[in-house]
Design a protein that fits this description.
It is globular, with a radius of gyration of 18 Å. The chain starts with a strand and ends with a helix. It has a single domain (4-306), classed as Arginase, Chain A (3-Layer(aba) Sandwich), CATH 3.40.800.20. It has helices at 20-34, 52-55, 61-69, 74-78, 86-109, 135-145, 163-168, 205-223, 249-265, 288-306, and strands at 4-5, 43-44, 111-114, 152-156, 175-182, 195-199, 227-231, 276-279. It has an eight-stranded parallel beta sheet with strand order 2-1-3-8-7-4-5-6, with helices on both faces. With 307 residues, it is α/β, with parallel strands linked by helices. Helix 9 links the parallel strand 7 and strand 8. It contains ten helices and eight strands. The longest helix has 24 residues, at 86-109. This is Histone deacetylase. Residues 30-287 form the Histone deacetylase domain. Belongs to the histone deacetylase family.
Length: 307
């Protein structure tokens, strides 16, 4: 039905205390197959690790070298949130390649999903908060470099501001960054996206959806992108341990349905549709079932609306 990047590398064991955030990457594909949202033929594994040439359109050479050689200064390594290791760096390179390959598939299938990705806290020269390399930024530059897109829109609806993405594209009119996030959430020092909507603690479904409805369709019409990236974090839920908004599972589902509907209705200046790449983003509710249900709803919305 639509291509989904899957990364077996996630099954590599992590130190105690770092396992829980990774479980969803193993369980979500199983859930999508079980409920019939996707079939085995929909899944693809990235063909390789992202090439240096693609990563370096976004990230500094010195930073990439420090990651690959495991020579990051100790304080910088601590900001990553995971212990720095070769397998962790390979994981991030594979995520980025999955997003690149998903973009190419989305040009034929309308939409492609990444079981991981949404590493929007990765800056040009450093990483933080579980993000080493910015997958959607790397894929944006890949599309532009290879003539697949000129104007790109990044729609980031994770509870945390996409601070790394904002920094990377802060002086670039060819990529429009839109982040709707919790005002009281990390990062506490925000960067400036092209459009930021900061929501107060406890924001409920009605308020969130009203803001989105009043913003997204007009934004797409004004920017007229050739390609859209969607970061669909489910840490907007009231149950999320790292979020401070107040949304329900139904509200999060309606968010995704509205976003994909807005993407589907948007007109491209010369093509029959605007391709969409969706990366999963955050989700840290105490019950893993809540996280999986919320992420599964994103995939159902993409299937029902865009396919």
């Amino acid at each position: 039905m639509f291509p989904i990047a899957f990364h077996p590398i996630y099954k590599h064991p992590l130190p105690e205390g770092h396992r829980f955030p990774m479980i969803k990457y193993e369980l979500l594909p199983q859930q999508l197959l079980l409920e019939g949202t996707a079939s085995k033929s929909d899944f693809f594994e990235p063909s390789k690790l992202a090439a240096d040439v693609d990563v370096l359109r976004v990230h500094d050479q010195a930073y990439l070298d420090d990651l690959k050689n495991l020579t990051l200064e100790r304080r910088a390594a601590r900001k990553l949130g995971f212990p720095l290791s070769k397998i962790l760096v390979e994981r991030e390179l594979r995520i980025a390649q999955g997003t690149i390959e998903g973009c190419l598939k989305a040009m034929n299938y309308k939409v492609a999903m990444n079981i991981a990705g949404g590493t929007h806290h990765a800056y040009t020269d450093h990483g933080e908060a579980f993000c080493l390399l910015n997958d959607q930024a790397i894929a944006s530059r890949y599309l532009q470099q290879h003539g697949h897109a000129e104007k790109i829109l990044i729609v980031d609806l994770d509870v945390h501001q996409g601070n790394g993405t904002a920094q990377i594209f802060q002086k670039d009119d060819s990529v429009f960054t839109f982040s709707m996030h919790g005002a009281g959430n990390y990062p506490f020092k925000k960067e400036q996206s092209d459009l930021d909507i900061a929501l107060p603690d406890g924001t409920n479904d009605d308020t969130f959806l009203s803001e989105l409805r009043n913003t997204l369709p007009d934004l797409i019409h004004e920017q007229r992108p050739d390609f859209i990236f969607y970061l669909a974090g489910v840490d907007v839920l009231a149950t999320d341990k790292l979020g401070r908004l107040g949304m329900t599972l139904d509200g999060c589902r309606m968010r995704d349905e509205f976003a994909f509907s807005a993407f589907a209705k948007a007109e491209h200046k010369s093509k029959p549709f605007i391709p969409v790449q969706c990366s999963m983003g955050g989700g840290y509710s105490p019950e893993i079932k809540v996280i999986i249900d919320a992420h599964s709803n994103t995939y159902k919305a993409a299937r029902d609306i865009l396919i």
